[in-house]
């Protein structure tokens, strides 16, 4: 111990000397001046004092004031100055991978270091940290994972949770865990950081923890709603020019033009609003428009026209465009690239900023551009609070956001774009006023803004809880219901019970709500538990390749695009891929295989175009497949040496069994009444097939059962996707089987799934099923076992 102490002392001194040397060097001084000009600097002493005095501190401040890059750094610097640098360990969580990485890199630069020295990062599959790393930026998921192995966070001195105002599921969850942990670890310091809103909520959750607010300064931002935007660019629409000849009233002209274009109800609504002063009359129409409006329909044309307008008429400064996700960013990007002005690299630098971006590409967003070039950044709501782009003066806000649904690494189920909250809209607006007075263009009418909710609903209250429930179990946090009851805003007990029940049905939890071996494995797969189970079964039964495609396809959402004007042709293509097997899922497999072949032959873009497939979605599927395979290999389910995992990949019966294993309890029975085929599921009674499903075009489905992943209610209950399967596959791969008193009758754990069978056959089904179940459970116990 004596020697250890000496070494520690030496290390501490070295850290201090280095820090001082940097701060006294000429670039270091310049950097310090930059940092000292950030609003956070004025609160530095107050912040450090509060951290020393209180277990929990809540800090709020405008985006860009220096919370993320400065506050953790202040702690690190002060520990190093005090000669304790070697023994502190600060963890700062970020909700997204990209911000964890970019912030860590920025802080390393500010400290004149390489990433991985005193500052590092860790996100899933990627990390830069060394033995000397004292400040670690990581995703919230990584910290939760760490808690699994080290529930007391031994050695960690400070935990900083960033962006808590977003109310992400992981963050809300982490706060409950930390609240418990603080009782045991009285020396641990927790700092919660949030954008300006709602900090009081968190303070009262932590028994009145002190609040520190960093006053910020922003320049005024001019607000333009859709009405104004259309007026600004109105004359670029040729229809209006024509109408002008007739000397018509302008508002009416625009209205007529938009009625003609008929693509976007909100735009028409805005036009009505222009013509009629009283917007209140339109509240019903506003509601309708809210449900219909879709940035993609709005036509990238409007954004294109607005961007051209800004480039031609406005002062210098970067433009930040808020889009909903990776897909529409890519599509808009392609569309803008073909514009003679916006696509000209000598005049415009078009950049994208979203969570799935390669690390190297991120840096371009922050780089200044030469004077005569206009920087345009297409971003997701990532740029709302977690990333600050310095030179932005113009903001274009499409008004919608969605979670990065393609990114299974963040474990976010697919979501459709939804309206942002007023708070988000104000945040987006604020991005324009950081360096000088700015302009914000909201692509929706003022009336729509007024209808936004004040804050976004916390994720915990609107997302499926299956994965979270598994996580609670793997962290040994007790009864799921009790634990979630302790959240800031607890979810509805009914939805908790539904999730627990589903997990019991698929065999991830036992009847005492304890994790089974399957449940344990599922916690390491960042996908919906049902998809996770299907992946594991695919690996166990050496039928992995097609299952990878299905899992990836269901996770990213449909790669088949169905353009309104070419719907028939598009549906034919999907039908071609799936009709033979009576399966939307196998259609995914065949589409991917064909795409892969086209890819290898170098004509994938053309292939996608002809087959109505989204090229970008196919690419994401491709990379997800790889990630799934890596995870299965890490868990031991895939043998890295032998190619056993695809021994039976061509066996379609088996594949259907595995699909059934994954989709269960999503089962519906098929019964034909003359020409009219009907389906029935457990809870909802009669259901129908969604018109996008291949099966909806098959006259007579030659299977007694359908298994499906998703059903949705919109008037009728619709199955979005389905695969037809036989009795035997359902019996072998469905839920638990019971033999009832009545001889020759089998039923599944869902009581209504009854099979009347001849006794000898029932007998053999039971025997075979027992064999399969025992083999599966052996594999779950020890995935590497050869059975
Ligand atoms: P907050 O977390 O309060 O929103 P940050 O700490 O992220 O603020 O950013 C503080 C300031 O640091 C920003 O205003 C910006 O000027 C600067 N900054 C942050 N990241 C970078 C970067 N990667 N490159 C250059 N400057 C950056
Ligand atoms: Mg921040």
TrEMBL record:
Q: Name one GO cellular component term.
A: nucleus
Task: Work out whether the entry's keyword set contains Iron-sulfur.
Answer: no
Q: What is its EC number?
A: 3.6.4.13
Reply yes or no: does the keyword Amino-acid biosynthesis apply. no
GO MF, one term, reads: RNA binding
Q: Please, which domain of life does this record's source organism belong to? A: Eukaryota
Q: What class of enzyme is it?
A: hydrolase
Q: Which reaction does it catalyse?
A: ATP + H2O = ADP + phosphate + H(+)
Q: Where is the Helicase ATP-binding domain?
A: 48-215
In this chain the Helicase C-terminal domain maps to 302-476
Keywords from UniProt, A to Z, are: ATP-binding, Chloroplast, Helicase, Hydrolase, Nucleotide-binding, Plastid, RNA-binding
The entry's family comment says:
Belongs to the DExH box helicase family.
For this entry, the protein name equals RNA helicase
Native source organism of the sequence: Ceratopteris richardii
- Organismal lineage: Eukaryota, Viridiplantae, Streptophyta, Embryophyta, Tracheophyta
């Amino acid at each position: 111990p004596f020697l250890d102490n000496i070494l520690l002392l030496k290390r501490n001194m070295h850290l201090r000397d280095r820090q001082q040397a940097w701060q006294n060097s000429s670039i270091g001084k310049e950097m310090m001046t930059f940092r000292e000009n950030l609003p956070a600097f004025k609160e530095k002493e107050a912040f450090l004092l509060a951290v020393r005095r209180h277990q929990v501190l809540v800090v709020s401040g405008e985006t860009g004031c220096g919370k993320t890059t400065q506050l953790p750094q202040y702690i690190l610097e002060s520990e190093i100055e005090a000669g304790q640098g070697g023994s502190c360990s600060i963890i700062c969580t970020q909700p997204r991978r990209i911000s964890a990485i970019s912030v860590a890199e920025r802080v390393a630069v500010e400290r004149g270091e390489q990433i991985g020295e005193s500052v590092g990062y860790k996100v899933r599959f990627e990390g830069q940290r060394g033995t000397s790393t004292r400040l670690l930026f990581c995703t919230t998921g990584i910290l939760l994972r760490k808690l699994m192995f080290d529930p007391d966070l031994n050695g960690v001195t400070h935990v900083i949770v960033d962006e808590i105002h977003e109310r992400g599921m992981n963050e809300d969850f982490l706060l409950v865990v930390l609240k418990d942990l603080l009782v045991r670890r009285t020396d641990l310091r927790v700092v919660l950081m949030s954008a300006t809103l709602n900090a009081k909520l968190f303070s009262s959750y932590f028994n009145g923890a002190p609040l520190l607010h960093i006053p910020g300064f922003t320049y005024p931002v001019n607000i333009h709603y859709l009405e104004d935007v259309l007026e600004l660019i109105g004359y670029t629409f040729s229809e209006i020019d024509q109408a002008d000849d007739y000397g018509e009233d302008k508002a009416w002209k625009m209205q007529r033009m938009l009625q003609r274009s008929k693509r976007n109800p909100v735009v028409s609504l805005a036009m009505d609003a222009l013509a009629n002063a009283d917007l209140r009359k339109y509240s019903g129409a506003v509601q309708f428009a809210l449900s219909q409006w879709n940035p993609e329909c709005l036509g990238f044309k409007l954004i294109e026209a607005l961007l051209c307008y800004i480039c031609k008429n406005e002062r210098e400064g970067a433009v930040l465009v808020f889009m909903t996700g990776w897909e529409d960013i890519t599509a808009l990007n392609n569309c803008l690239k073909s514009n003679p002005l916006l696509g000209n690299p000598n005049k415009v630098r078009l950049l994208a900023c979203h969570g799935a971006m390669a690390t190297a590409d991120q840096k371009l967003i922050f780089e200044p551009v030469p004077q005569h070039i206009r920087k345009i950044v297409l971003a997701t709501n990532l740029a709302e609070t977690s990333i600050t782009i310095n030179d932005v003066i113009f903001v274009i806000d499409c008004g919608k956001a969605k979670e990065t649904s393609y990114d299974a690494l963040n474990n976010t189920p697919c979501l459709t774009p939804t309206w942002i909250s007023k708070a988000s809209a104000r945040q987006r607006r604020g991005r324009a006023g950081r360096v000088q007075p700015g302009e914000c263009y909201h692509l929706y009418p003022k009336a729509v803004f007024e209808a936004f909710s004040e804050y976004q609903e916390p994720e915990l209250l609107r997302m499926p809880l299956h994965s979270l429930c598994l996580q609670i179990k793997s962290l040994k946090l007790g009864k799921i219901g009790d634990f979630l009851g302790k959240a800031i805003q607890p979810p509805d007990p009914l939805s908790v019970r539904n999730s627990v029940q589903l997990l019991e049905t698929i065999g991830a939890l036992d009847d005492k709500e304890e994790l089974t071996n399957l449940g344990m494995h599922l916690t390491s797969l960042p996908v919906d538990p049902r998809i996770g189970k299907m992946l594991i079964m695919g690996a166990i039964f050496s039928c992995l390749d097609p299952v990878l495609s299905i899992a990836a396809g269901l996770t990213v959402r449909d790669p088949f695009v169905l353009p309104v004007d070419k719907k028939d042709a598009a549906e034919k293509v999907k039908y071609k891929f799936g009709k033979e097997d009576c399966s939307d899922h196998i259609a995914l497999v065949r589409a991917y295989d064909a795409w892969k072949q086209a890819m290898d032959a170098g004509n994938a873009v053309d292939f996608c175009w002809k087959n109505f497939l989204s090229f970008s979605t196919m690419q994401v599927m491709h990379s997800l497949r790889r990630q799934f395979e890596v995870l299965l290999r890490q868990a031991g389910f895939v043998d890295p040496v032998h190619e056993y995992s695809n021994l039976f990949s061509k066996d379609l019966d088996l594949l259907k069994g595995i699909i059934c294993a994954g989709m269960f309890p999503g089962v519906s029975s098929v019964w034909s009444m003359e020409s009219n085929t009907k389906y029935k599921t457990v809870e909802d009674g009669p259901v129908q097939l969604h018109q996008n499903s291949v099966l909806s075009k098959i006259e007579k489905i030659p299977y007694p059962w359908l298994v499906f992943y998703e059903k949705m209610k919109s008037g009728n209950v619709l199955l979005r996707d389905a695969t037809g399967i036989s009795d035997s596959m359902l019996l072998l791969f469905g839920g638990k089987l019971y033999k009832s008193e009545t001889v020759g009758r089998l039923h599944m754990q869902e009581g209504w799934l009854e099979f009347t069978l001849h006794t000898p056959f029932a007998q053999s089904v039971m025997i075979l099923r027992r064999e399969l179940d025992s083999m599966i459970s052996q594999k779950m116990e020890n995935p590497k076992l050869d059975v």
